[in-house]
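Give me the fold.
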Amino acid sequence: MRLFHIEVADPALPEAEVLLEELSASLASITGDSGRTSFDVQDVRVPDALFVLARDASGVALACGAIRPMDEGVAEVKRMYARVNTLGLGSAVLVHLETAARQYGYRHLRLETRLINQRAIAFYEKHGYQRIPNFGKYADKPEAVCFEKKLA
């Protein structure tokens, strides 16, 4: 089993950009949309926002994720990605983001993915996210599916 650690990072770091590009390519192949237009690095450079990298024991970045403020008490999970063969790393990043969200005072986390992305849907449902009506710019997009988790 690989040892790893999760750290707050700047999404403009070269290794973060590589992971974000891998995520975009993966999403484009699954859904036909890279998701790039739904994330601006400035969104995680504001108070109560966060971008993290998960690194192996050698310091190699293997996974990333972010939260950004949405509404009072609500943050959005963005740019969740873990490289293939990093079993459990995506879950660890998500738990890290949920813990940080609680510390920031968020009561709910929301996210969007595409209906065609069944792997992502199963991942979020496994972690206690429940489907909600599509929000924001996803409201009129039948290809989108939105989820929320109440933070204890």
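The chain is about 30% helix and 30% strand.
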